[in-house]
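Board notes (copied after class):
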Amino acid sequence: MTNPRILIIEDDQIQAEDLKHSLERLGSPVEVISTEAQFRKRLKEADVERYSLAVVDMMLRWTDPAPDMELPPSDVIEEGSYTAGLRCCRSLASRGVRCIIFTALSPSAIPRKPSDDFEIIHKGGGGYATLLDRIRPLGR
């Protein structure tokens, strides 16, 4: 079995790089996206179904702060930025990509729908080790 292709969607650059290096040490090819706007652009440009797994931060920014910052669509403004990770996971899951939300929020604080098919792992405590333990068997 080949190692899974993994997509990381995380706006904290240090956390994203740490996770990327850990997953690459497991032998997985990894791509990092840091905002919801980049994710939506990626959906239009590439075949996201090629990923076996996505690790997604719940509280993802719409875009990087910049003078020419792109405004989010009205549905994003209405839902709120703290649901960005959910929107990304739901979009990926609808395309057959397994998702794990890796978040500092309490899992009970995340508004899930009965149709949501993803795991939530809390970043605190042993969360990082738990995440790697969930991913490691995918490459076997």
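Comment from the instructor: Residues 45 and 51 are 14 Å apart (CA to CA). The first strand starts at residue 6 and ends at 9.
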